[in-house]
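Example with several molecule types.
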Amino acid sequence: MKRYSLQTRLLFAVDCIIFGFDGQEMKLLLIQRGFEPCKGKWSLVGGFVQENESAEDAAARVLKNLTGLDGIYMEQLHTFSAPDRDSVERTVSVAFTALIDIQRYKEQLHEDFHPVWFSINRHPELIFDHKKMVDLAKEKLRYKAALHPLLLELLPDKFTIPQLQQLYESVYNTTFDKGNFSRKILSTKLLVKLADKDKLSSKKGAFYYKVDRKRYNVNFYAFLNFVPDTLLQRSAIVR
Amino acid sequence: MKRYSLQTRLLFAVDCIIFGFDGQEMKLLLIQRGFEPCKGKWSLVGGFVQENESAEDAAARVLKNLTGLDGIYMEQLHTFSAPDRDSVERTVSVAFTALIDIQRYKEQLHEDFHPVWFSINRHPELIFDHKKMVDLAKEKLRYKAALHPLLLELLPDKFTIPQLQQLYESVYNTTFDKGNFSRKILSTKLLVKLADKDKLSSKKGAFYYKVDRKRYNVNFYAFLNFVPDTLLQRSAIVR
DNA sequence: GCAAAAGTGTTAAACTTACACCCATGC
DNA sequence: GCATGGGTGTAAGTTTAACACTTTTGC
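Resulting structure tokens for the full complex:
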């Protein structure tokens, strides 16, 4: 039972699995550690939780430092607590998944940060249990994106349906019928058609769309309405 | 960035949201704290993580102590780390959801444990942020049970389709058409029909079924095949 | 004009839903 | 024999999936 005085106290950290999409494929943001141990090895972006912040606060702070961006999509993934996961000292780490619009991302100057985008399928070896974290994040992304529109977080403010399709195809490593894909996405009513077209990737050009943020927030959990939404309150389900 | 020596070290605990089903409605197992602070107040079952165990180990140990049972369905729910969540000393807690067959459960003797099953909808006030944990666990259970057959974990080895339907109806606080419910469950091929009937709740009697454990493990994530299962590898997705 | 990508139309198949109906049995 | 819950049948409505077809425009 709980007896406070006798208990061990541990280090408590956060690590962020940061996904981006460059228009072609999914990317993962990694840094080269600037200090020992494992200096020079590749690692997730992370840091220790400070005295007056929660793990969520710490992860947001780390992301803000790295990207200069606020309001990034972020959710708790899993907590890793194997006694030997950190070779220096026992450390528990809460892993977070973050989705960012790669075009809005600007690398901030920081002596310790040397972040690089890697393809999600070909990245260097990672320290500690960071590969486990990345693998789990990839699984959860695929799972969740099949049910909810969170991949929209990865696109710029203006995007086309074919670009969105390219993103889905990259996440699921498959192809979709463009007609059916477009109708399915549009049927969610989450997108607003804009007046102008992207003419870079075709002669005809594809209309730009933007996310209807209001509907997005309200309908996030109803997206592919797998269950009559009278049953699952759409407001607040599983972070 | 990470500099180990300067960091605060924190207490690290687990708390278990233990769900059971008594044939009528969903229950939640709570204990009355046997020590200060908040002695006598109701609380989730929990404990501190020891030096040589992970949070998962700790949660399994706590459950084993309480119920005498091994191999209980358990999954990480969320980590709670608000700086002021524990009034005594800053403590980070990993919450776990556990599903147990209430009939297999036997209260173990333990000076500190006074566990009681409460209706999931009418339970006493809880200490710290335990209500938040319970609410989140309920949401996630409803979410996940709509997609995967995990409610089977709550039933005894032998059960009838109407009993399973009662369980689903209790979780979603609704009613289902019995014909459609039975066909949908059976279409998963996760159940094996037994030779004998339960005659307690009807004159005709309802056939007993048991879980086909092999199919259950293989098809857990494919259950209500919301996405063509060629897309979501069914083997390992989201704990 | 033609190639290439965007987008629409169409249809068969599959699945869902509601509800009527039959079944087995204890009283 | 009839009330009760278990279980099957069935048809209308909806959704999905495959793919043919039309549109637009740069070259």
